[in-house]
Design brief:
This protein is an alpha+beta fold. The chain has four helices and nine strands. The strands form two sheets. Strands 4-9-5-6-7-8 form a six-stranded antiparallel beta sheet. It has a three-stranded antiparallel beta sheet with strand order 1-2-3. A hairpin with a 5-residue loop joins strand 7 and strand 8. It is elongated, with a radius of gyration of 22 Å. The relative contact order is 0.18.
């Protein structure tokens, strides 16, 4: 399926989201519709599937913005809001969502992820576009840097994000043709 790219986000054997048309920003289709479209494409003979194993928290983090998030706070900044106290408030409210943070000094960007009020990680993109993911233990140091340099931030709530579900149903499997011939096995007598 040339030019048709999609992604399944799978956690513990269940699809938590999917996206089709990922060549565009935002993807053309997400959720159940994308699952059905990708399952349909998987029956085509000229498709290619790549599988990557990454930690669960990174899969959830990557899938989160595809849930059509609701923006609940916009253009807050560290001149008027103490970010550490604000994060405590989001934790107390059991936020599932994320906070986009942009440093004013070096324009470094970060997305701080929450799941049921718990901080799950921080994804940081440098000015060059390189992205790094940090688990919750490293978050305080980055937040201090964002605060020291001054930052603006927006907060988004996502829904239906926590539990993986079995989205869609796969069509009956067809045996894929072998691309390389079966190896020929021969018995050979070894000299004694």
């Amino acid at each position: 399926a040339s030019g048709k790219k999609g992604v399944f986000f799978v956690v513990n054997g269940g699809t938590i989201n999917a996206a089709f048309g990922v060549e565009t920003e935002p993807p053309r289709m997400t959720g159940e519709d994308a699952v059905e479209k990708l399952l349909n494409l998987s029956t085509k003979s000229n498709g290619l599937v790549n599988v990557y194993q990454v930690p669960q928290v990174e899969v959830e983090f990557a899938a989160q913005p595809l849930f059509k998030p609701e923006e609940i706070f916009k253009d807050l900044n560290t001149d008027f809001v103490r970010i550490d106290q604000f994060i405590k408030k989001l934790q107390d409210e059991k936020l599932t969502g994320y906070m986009e943070i942009t440093s004013r000094k070096d324009r470094m960007k970060g997305n701080l992820s929450f799941k049921g009020g718990e901080v799950t990680g921080l994804q940081v993109a440098s000015r060059t576009g390189d992205t790094s993911f940090y688990e919750r233990e490293a978050v305080p140091a980055f937040l201090e840097e964002f605060t020291r340099n001054g930052a603006t931030f927006n907060v988004f709530r996502t829904k239906n994000f926590i539990a993986p579900t079995k989205m869609g149903s796969a069509p009956p499997a067809k045996k894929a043709p072998r691309l390389v011939p079966e190896p020929e096995v021969k018995e050979v007598a070894l000299p004694e």
